[in-house]
Design a protein that fits this description.
Layout lengths: L4 E2 L16 E3 L2 E3 L4 E4 L3 E6 L2 E2 L1 E3 L4 E3 L4 E4 L2 E4 L7 E7 L5 E4 L1 E3 L2 E4 L7 E2 L34 E3 L6 E3 L8 H6 L10 E3 L5 E3 L6 E7 L9 E6 L11 E10 L8 E2 L1
Antiparallel strand pairs: 1-8, 2-3, 4-5, 5-6, 7-8, 9-10, 11-12, 11-22, 13-14, 14-21, 15-23, 16-17, 18-19, 20-21, 20-22
The protein binds 2-acetamido-2-deoxy-beta-D-glucopyranose (NAG) (3 copies).
Length: 259
């Protein structure tokens, strides 16, 4: 159980350098970009553009992506069991509520991040039209892909980047197991059902860092790749701290293959 942010009703919340108009919540004044007011009595802080909400009876605020509140009792959400899409939330506008997409073996966000799926060379019985072609991950480290051998998402332990494995070219189990990255599938990440997708560190945020897409010319077609917040990655330029939120979806929202 994580510590709770207490209800904050003091006017000392005001940050004087902010030009934003203030609002009132009961007797308190607050910045709407930083807090939400509930019932004119409770102020809860916003983090990564995600509002926290009061848990009535507990006297605290909680992130519904992490905890649930029932009769004043807060509980950690269950670990995810459903296939899910990922959405990024950052403090600044371009990073708020944007879909994470799979392309070129990386998971990325941003206007140039593409969903690169295909359905070619499939066996009989595969109905390409049945796939929605969205980037859908499973909590066990696999992706919602039906290519023989499957595909897997992982955090590369060398550089901490969030990637996915190439599709195997044969149905041989031995070959599928040898695909680089397969051995790290799902490691060091905890996924909560309709909640946070968290890297196993004390901070639980990710870094979205501007990178040129594979095959792209520098300065064009760049997207934000997603990195774990290791000390060396925190020194990158052009990165934004984000939280990743899993939303349960049907596995059929996925693809036959991610390219
Ligand atoms: C809001 O205030 C009303 C009246 O005091 C109370 O009945 C209600 O339970 C409160 N709702 C929440 C969410 O605290
Ligand atoms: C994110 O955007 C979708 C629509 O694109 C909306 O339904 C949803 O409420 C948004 N979520 C948050 C937390 O802002
Ligand atoms: C499958 O074949 C293509 C083209 O020959 C190659 O680019 C790709 O890397 C191969 N994939 C694997 C997993 O070996």
């Amino acid at each position: 159980m994580r510590p709770l942010a207490a209800f904050a009703l003091a006017a000392s919340l005001l940050v004087t350098s902010n030009a934003e108009d203030t609002a009132t919540c009961g007797a308190a004044t607050y910045f709407p970009s930083e807090y939400s007011c509930y019932n004119d009595t409770a102020l809860c802080p916003t983090a990564y553009s995600l509002p926290t909400v009061p848990c009535s009876g507990s006297g605290g605020c909680y992130a519904p992506q992490s905890l649930s509140c029932n009769g004043g009792i807060l509980r950690t959400l269950p670990k995810a069991s459903s296939p899910f899409t990922l959405t990024a939330f950052g403090t600044r506008e371009p990073y708020r509520n944007v879909s994470v997409k799979a392309c070129g073996n990386y998971l990325a966000i941003g206007a140039n991040a593409r969903e690169c799926t295909s359905c070619t060379g499939v066996g009989p019985g595969v109905q390409c039209s049945s796939y929605k072609g969205r980037t859908v991950l499973l909590p066990d480290g696999s992706m919602a892909a039906d290519v023989p051998g499957g595909q897997y998402w992982y955090v590369d332990p060398r550089d901490g980047v969030l990637q996915f494995t190439k599709a195997a070219n044969s149905t041989s189990t031995a070959q599928a197991l040898e695909i680089p990255g397969r051995e790290f599938a799902g490691q060091r990440v905890t996924v909560y059902e309709n909640g946070f997708f968290e890297y196993d560190s004390s901070s639980h945020y990710w870094l979205a860092c501007l990178r040129t897409l594979p095959g792209g010319t520098i300065g064009t077609g760049r997207s934000w790749r997603i990195y774990s917040p290791s000390p060396s990655n925190l020194e990158f330029k052009e990165c934004e701290k984000i939280k990743l939120v899993a939303t349960a979806v049907d596995r059929k929202q996925g693809a036959y293959r991610y390219e």
